[in-house]
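User: Can you help me understand a structure? I only have the sequence.
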Amino acid sequence: MHEAASIDGAGPVRRFWSVTRPLLAPAFTTNLMLSIIGGLKLFDQVYALTGGGPGHATDTISTLLHKDACAPPGP
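Assistant: Let's start by predicting it. Here is the structure, written out as tokens:
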């Protein structure tokens, strides 16, 4: 595919955006979803043990989202 794009006159940037990026997109999507699921699975352990810890030292994305969603509205 890279060779065909090169023969068609595509430069390195166009080859990346039109050939390489679409081929890598499924791998990035899978990795992103598994990372999000793993981060959400960590929520109960952090919240039960430390609640975010002293000075938010053990906060994760999921605990920060929980604190933000459950916070009373400000003035």
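Now, to help you interpret it: The helical segments are 2-7, 12-41, 43-49, 61-70. The chain has a mean pLDDT of 88. Let me know which part you'd like to focus on.
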